[in-house]
Design brief:
220 residues, 7 helices
Length: 220
């Protein structure tokens, strides 16, 4: 019987020869390339941002960031939320009244605090660290307080009669090297700060009563 010879076919354009077999080679589509790149980026991001999800491991067992947040919410969620609500109410009302403070006035107040701390033999950085605060947090606090002082206005005024009454009631006396004028200014500032605390609390309470606040999580 005559042997039939089957000629080997030549690979057409776009085909790839592998192990004697002819297979079509398809170029990956742009969508496939993009999907692969996205997966790679996600893997890299998860590697470098693992601290966002896992805060620590104990003998190889992870402690998630979410579990830490939940624990903190149990311990002080109600108080923290109330502070955040108060700050939001204050910021909105100050913005509505267009009350602002210049950075220079905040810097001046910080310099005064630095001088007071230095007079006690310390530094502002150390003092803030002991209270768990940063310089940015201090600036924010000073800014809001000075804005509130403007908003409260005449309610913080201190009369000479109030100073005299305070000195009599507390039996306060000036230091050996302190002048009478400086002593009265010190007393005036003490009274003013007391008024600020009282009036600011009442002011925020009135804002809370008139605000529309919806709670989606109830903290105990």
């Amino acid at each position: 019987m005559e042997q039939i010879h089957i000629p080997e076919s030549q690979p057409a354009t776009g085909e790839k020869k592998t192990s004697g077999l002819h297979m079509k080679y398809k170029k990956p589509t742009p969508m496939v390339i993009a999907a692969g790149g996205a997966v790679l980026l996600i893997i890299v991001a998860l590697f470098f941002a693992k601290g966002m999800f896992v805060v620590a491991t104990v003998n190889g067992s992870p402690i998630s960031r979410l579990s830490v947040i939940r624990e903190l919410e149990k311990q002080g969620g109600k108080q923290t939320l109330q502070v955040m609500i108060d700050k939001k109410l204050i910021a909105d009302e100050l913005a509505r009244k267009n009350i602002s403070i210049t950075p220079e006035s905040v810097d001046e107040e910080i310099r005064k605090i630095e001088a007071q701390v230095a007079g006690q033999g310390g530094t502002l950085v150390d003092a803030l660290a002991m209270q768990g605060m940063t310089i940015d947090a201090l600036r924010e606090q000073i800014t809001m307080q000075k804005q509130l002082e403007i908003a409260l206005g005449d309610k913080l005024a201190v009369s000479a009669e109030e100073i005299d009454a305070f000195i009599i009631d507390t039996k306060a006396a000036p230091h050996d090297s302190e002048t009478q004028e400086d002593f009265r200014k010190e007393i005036e500032e003490q009274i003013r700060q007391q008024k600020f605390q009282t009036e600011a609390q009442q002011w925020v309470s009135s804002l809370t009563e008139s605000a529309k606040i919806k709670y989606y999580v109830e903290y105990k």
